[in-house]
Design goal:
The chain is of the alpha+beta class. The protein contains 4 helices and 6 strands; from the N terminus they run ααβββαβαββ. Bound molecules: coenzyme A. One of its GO terms (molecular function) is protein-N-terminal-alanine acetyltransferase activity.
Length: 142
């Protein structure tokens, strides 16, 4: 993801997370300033149609956000994107984790398919009464 991609990414973000959206400045900050941030886009015909972000801190990777544009969902793109970033993170990380809303059955099914397991609950993570499930996967053994 480059600075030029951010407006298109933020459009997808607004439509994908109506109950809580990152600001456009949050994306600029992640891409330009966060030394731990690693952000990727999926493009088709030079248009951004999906994105994924993660933080890598020493040997731990944490997915911060992922979405595919509505009209491109159900085609296996997020599986390809996750496989790509899991291989990328595997070079330096032993584990990858993420938070997901309990009611987001589609995302939970995706993560389970990619080998993630439940690790616990973060209470009120998305606001009062809105808990997050923590999911994680081991990327390599040592
Ligand atoms: C979650 C999301 C990224 C999945 O992207 P996608 O490219 O449509 O997913 P894929 O086509 O790669 O499907 C991957 C797996 O997700 C699950 N899945 C996808 N669409 C599904 C649906 N409509 N119902 C149930 N499971 C579904 C399936 O397990 C699927 O694997 P399969 O095709 O082998 O059955 C997409 O739905 C999205 O952007 N949602 C809004 C944002 C969001 O919720 N992000 C996750 C925040 S934690």
């Amino acid at each position: 993801m480059t600075v030029e991609d951010v407006p298109a990414v933020h459009e997808i973000e607004k439509r994908s997370f109506p109950s809580g959206t990152w600001s456009i400045d949050a994306f600029y900050h992640e891409v330009e300033k966060n030394e731990f941030g690693h952000y990727f886009v999926v493009e088709a015909e030079e248009e951004v149609i999906g994105y994924l972000g993660m933080w890598i801190v020493i040997d731990q990777a944490q997915i911060t956000t992922v979405a595919i544009r509505e009209d491109k969902r159900g085609m296996g793109l997020s599986k390809i994107l996750l496989e790509y970033i899991m291989n990328y993170a595997r070079l330096t990380c032993e584990m990858m984790s993420l938070e997901v809303r309990e009611e987001n059955a589609v995302a939970r099914a995706l993560y389970e398919k990619m080998g993630f397991s439940y690790g616990g609950l973060r209470r009120d993570y998305y606001g009062a009464g809105q808990d997050a499930k923590v999911m994680w996967v081991r990327l390599r053994d040592e």
